[in-house]
Amino acid sequence: MVQRAMQDLTYTSLCFPEAIKARGMDNAEDIPYYFYRDDGLLVWEAIKTFVAEVVDIYYEGDQVVEEDPELQDFVKDVYMYGMRGKKASGFPKSLKTKEKLCEYLTVVIFTASAQHAAVNFGQVGKDRASLLGGRWPGQLSCLRALGGLHHLLHRSGGGGAEGPGVWCSQGPVEFVLEFVPSTGCQCEGGGFPGPTGVGGGGSGRRPGRQSWVRAALAGGHPAGSVTVPQYDWCSWIPNAPPTMRAPPPTAKGVVTIEQIVDTLPDRGRSCWHLGAVWALSQFQDNELFLGMYPEEHFIEKPVKEAMARFRKNLDSIVSVIAERNKNKKLPYYYLSPDRIPNSVAI
């Protein structure tokens, strides 16, 4: 599978502006509200500007780039052993100018940080307010998706029209509870679920965790409303099934809804998938985000000043994205620099 994917991977496809243009999605007037493009271009330009400033400090001209043996060996190694020497990939075997070096470094940084964040942290929904508030987002999405999927499977199997809330009240609640952390999910009313229950709205009541889970699946909360994150790709199993229980159809127009449901993963595999994508979508407690460099590999004043300007530029992008997302039912924040880890993080 990786080998097949590598056949289509090209250097240009990793250059964000060129990739957007190649897909015909670069015209903001024709295709407005494409936030992946808009935010991605902002981050790309910020990284490119920062890289150019640092390159200018250490490389006086193109000849210095061409005569840097460690740099050239690195680029050659990527081409020969990473891309298997495939000329059609478009990956350079060497870099001869400062401009090409800046582009190359921007591709590396953007791909390992912003591009990864846009893909990885979209697996399970998180609302921005929950993220900034240190809450545990995503768990209600997982629970409701689990209940909704059971409802779909139950109904297709000829049983009663059992809703997700009913199933949670009468079904394997203990199993569902495995997806609910004992602490960390803050309610809008100010309460937190503790080891034995949920507080909310200052009422002082602490109903059991089972009550909280049942209410979450049913769409409510036992002691006040909960900030519920948006649904994203993988928390609704039919949208991104981890496995399929039947081969794909060989003819068009003959597939029934029953066949589709029978092809989807069973409840056990769905639960495993929900837990997996939820875990993969969480930030670490000590996560380092784009522009954060606690280890001082550069001690020269010009570089430190460039890093400070980079962080300031990123902060302005965060403000732009936050302002745009205000009052939106479906905000897009995956490419907000304060949500982009410095490197691949899963």
From TrEMBL:
<dbReference type="Pfam" id="PF00305">
    <property type="entry name" value="Lipoxygenase"/>
</dbReference>
<keyword id="KW-0560">Oxidoreductase</keyword>
<dbReference type="GO" id="GO:0034440">
    <property type="term" value="P:lipid oxidation"/>
</dbReference>
<dbReference type="InterPro" id="IPR036226">
    <property type="entry name" value="LipOase_C_sf"/>
</dbReference>
<keyword id="KW-0479">Metal-binding</keyword>
<dbReference type="GO" id="GO:0046872">
    <property type="term" value="F:metal ion binding"/>
</dbReference>
<feature type="domain" description="Lipoxygenase">
    <location>
        <begin position="1"/>
        <end position="346"/>
    </location>
</feature>
<protein>
    <recommendedName>
        <fullName>Lipoxygenase domain-containing protein</fullName>
    </recommendedName>
</protein>
<dbReference type="InterPro" id="IPR013819">
    <property type="entry name" value="LipOase_C"/>
</dbReference>
<dbReference type="InterPro" id="IPR000907">
    <property type="entry name" value="LipOase"/>
</dbReference>
<keyword id="KW-0223">Dioxygenase</keyword>
<dbReference type="GO" id="GO:0016702">
    <property type="term" value="F:oxidoreductase activity, acting on single donors with incorporation of molecular oxygen, incorporation of two atoms of oxygen"/>
</dbReference>
